[in-house]
Design the sequence.
DNA sequence: TCACATTTGTCCGTATGTATC
DNA sequence: AGATACATACGGACAAATGTG
């Protein structure tokens, strides 16, 4: 154990690329760099930071994975500040769920409990715009189903919109992460049946998708009637069915 | 809108470093690479994957930030497979909380609701080992306080242990993320008073720390008595106080 | 439509600091 | 203390992609 390291602060604390990514991150936090802004090219960044291009690239990888920037190739391309980093969190959640070997049952159980909690606060805090967004979501899903398509994205989005209607961003993040896992499991496990444009009748996914939409509609109605108990019951029933589907798919 | 891109899968899917990091990630998911295993050096990886070192380095940056590996310098160093990626998630959560400008009140509110939920399932599902871990946590915190130190880490850990006692890893992840934000806020906002070894009496942090420990003890007792209502009430009161402290520190 | 400039993606070679044996 | 192994960082170069005129 080195005394110098213990008592005195590290002279060269972080690796260069970490300093670079940290600096840029700070600029974003402080609002100096805003979503939509474009960073200078790698070469220009290297010149300004007085480091090599390799170092800049490693810093950009960090920012990219953290969800702060997108990188576009070609003329007038370059690193672009993104508007949200939530999607990135969801991706990491996915990794964690796979690594921690979480079962469908555990996921469903927690999902039910947390979304019931969310539902409570939706009834209290939802604004007109939230209700409208939920209604639009259901309409969009219905349209998809009428045109013989699966409304998987819309069905997931419904739950995210619910969380948003709590008016508490923490719930948004938590639910968003869980929904991302559900979406991932569904898309990975559902066999894609090549029936686009083909009307050879319903398949399993279509039927489930349709049921989900009507479930959502019933839940929304219960919310509008401020009927907590009914809304909770419907939600639990709905999520339980989805959970059973997940379970069966994972066999 | 390019038809080729819409209908058919991408021919050249990903950048090389993404393919490399993806490949290694898969090996970890599949259990071929286990925690504690050491990856070959950058040069060796470059040779085996038949790519350049820069490409390998960018892949390693991704794996490092995703929490899959640690990188050690020096002889017989190299990339080391880590045992958990949860800490990384927490770091990204931190970014999100800062970026989304979440208030102390919103954080506290959600924390109370979610931890109350957790508490419910702790009473149902906690095993003897969980109870023991909670008791040890409290003892450790008491010892720290007796020796005039702040038990900040232990106090945060108490809540993580509660989540663990639900026996549902989803709750663990969710609570762990929230606690990481709380810890970050507390450590960043609390002025470090240089009184190590100095017994010039209590300061604000010490007092709060001590109160927290006795709160935790009371909560644990209520859990042992299977007294749901009391446990919930105590927890809510405790978290509300912490929340007020956060609020006052953020001014 | 087509050539051009810009920018990322990738490779190679080299030098340096640092931790381990 | 010296040798070794490794990550870190630099510079130059070319290919590929993409927007622009």
Sequence:
């Amino acid at each position: 154990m080195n005394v110098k390291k213990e008592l005195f602060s590290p002279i060269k604390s972080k690796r260069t690329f970490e300093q670079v990514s940290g600096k840029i991150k700070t600029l974003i936090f402080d609002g100096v760099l805003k979503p939509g802004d474009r960073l200078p090219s790698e070469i220009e960044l290297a010149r300004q930071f007085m480091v090599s291009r390799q170092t800049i690239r490693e810093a950009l990888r960090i920012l990219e994975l953290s969800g702060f920037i997108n990188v576009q190739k070609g003329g007038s391309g370059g690193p672009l500040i993104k508007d949200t980093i939530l999607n990135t969190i969801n991706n990491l959640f996915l990794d964690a769920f796979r690594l921690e070997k979480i079962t469908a049952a555990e996921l469903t159980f927690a999902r039910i409990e947390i979304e019931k909690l969310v539902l409570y606060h939706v009834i209290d805090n939802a604004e007109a715009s939230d209700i409208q967004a939920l209604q639009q979501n259901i309409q969009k899903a219905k349209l998809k189903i009428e045109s013989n398509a699966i409304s998987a994205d819309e069905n997931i989005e419904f739950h995210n919109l619910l969380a948003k209607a709590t008016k508490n961003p923490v719930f948004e993040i938590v639910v968003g992460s869980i929904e991302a896992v559900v979406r991932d499991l569904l898309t990975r496990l559902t066999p894609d049946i090549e029936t686009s444009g083909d009307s050879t009748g319903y398949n399993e996914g279509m039927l489930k998708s349709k049921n989900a939409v009507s479930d959502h509609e019933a839940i929304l109605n219960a919310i509008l009637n401020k009927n907590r108990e009914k809304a909770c019951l419907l939600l639990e029933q709905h999520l339980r069915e989805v959970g059973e589907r997940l379970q069966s798919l994972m066999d």
Q: What stands out?
A: The longest strand of chain B covers residues 69-72.
